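Quick start: read one record
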Amino acid sequence: MFDSLLQSAESAYAATTQVNIGSFLACTIAAIILGFGVSVLYMLTHKKEGYTQSYAVTLIMLPPIVCVLLMLINFIGGIAIAGIFGLTRYRSVAADPKDIGYVFLAMAVGVVTGMGYIAYAIIFLVLMAIVLFALNTLNYAAPKNSDMTLKISVPENLNYDGLFDPILDRYCASWRLRRVKTTNFGSMFDCIYSIQLPLNVDQKKMIDELRTKNGNMTITLTLFKYDDKIYEK
């Protein structure tokens, strides 16, 4: 029984891998061009957030890779694509769900192109580009507050308990003390807060007021997603 299954799989593979060289080149080149389109779209919509060269290049690579796999092993195309999605790992510390969405967009373009629907792939990418540009221009769903991490250094002879509460209540939409740790051989404390800061708040004024309470020692204010999140451990 296994021999018959193997023979049928081999015959199916032989039947489905008879790809015309012209069709192969057309689909692959189209996938590469559309991959460039996805990459350019990603860069244009991430001017403020910033982006890495490796990620932009990866978005160019994905469509032709998926396209070739789908063209050459389309008798198990569903399993192959499921395996690609299942093996995809996101290890970036500053991973953004929107960045992951661009990965799936690039894969979808590769799938449609690999099935031979080049025109549909172009239309799909153009429609997605219009939607994403519109959302980016309108600043859709932009939060009114920024999630940030505030680290305040305090000398060991200063009681930090409740010391900064009035200032944080006045400037922050919400805040929470997440961790206190000793530094500099126990001569200082680092109070680490997670805060939600309104976009129109005067950050310098808040920091100046905090400095008057902690003896003009170090204060660090960072965006939450770029922080090391050591207080989560």
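Residues 12-16, 90-94, 227-233 have pLDDT under 50 and may be disordered.
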